[in-house]
Amino acid sequence: MPTPTKTLLTTIKVLDGISIGSGKLVAWLIIPMVGGLVYEVVARYAFNAPTEWAYDMTFMLYGSYFMLGAAYALCCKGHIRTDFFYARWSVRRQGTVDVLCYLLFFFPGLIVFLVVTWDFFAVSFARGERAVTSPWMPIIYPLKGALFVAVALLVLQGVSEFLKSVYAALKGEWL
Fold first, then answer.
1. Is residue 73 part of a domain?
2. Rounded alpha-carbon distances, angstroms, from residue 142 to 65, 69, 73, 149
């Protein structure tokens, strides 16, 4: 079996490294989120002084945490997969199905989502948009920017997974 080219391996390694690095970085968002929640619980129940900002901060941090971790989850095979049939298929068939799914569903949907989230963020940033549902009225565009970054990271990891699938479809083994 021919070995994969150095360019292919380097490309996959770089793209996987971006996803793993961003996933590890994003994982640290759990600390300010838990800190804000603990502060709110202590302020509310020990001092009868609830905050206006804790819910919004937690909502935005958890949303960012969840979205920005999607590429890391894809890299680590953490997304849901229907393995009932897939696990019984040959590596070539798995790779072929994955290639088709990436081309027909993954990339078209995420490219549209990338364009939409950029516009979503750009308009919010230009307007200095704030959450009007809260008396604290936090700025909202960082959360919308995180959505764009999350989709961009997911597209990059999708390229890596697509390349692995093409190799599996052609060579009958996973990288």
1. yes
2. 12, 16, 22, 10
Phi and psi at 76, nearest 5°, equal -90, 10
Domain contains 86 = yes
Distance of alpha carbon 3 from alpha carbon 110, whole angstroms: 31
Say how many C-beta atoms besides its own lie within 10 A of residue 107's C-beta: 16
For the CA atoms of 17, 95, 69, 151, the dihedral, rounded to the nearest 10 degrees, stands at 100
Tell me whether residue 1 is in a domain: no
Q: Residue 135: which domain range?
A: 6-171
| CA 19/CA 46 separation, integer angstroms | 41
pLDDT at 1: 57
Q: Which of 50-59, 113-122, 161-170 has the lowest mean pLDDT?
A: 50-59
Q: How many domains does the chain have?
A: 1
The pTM of this model reads 0.90
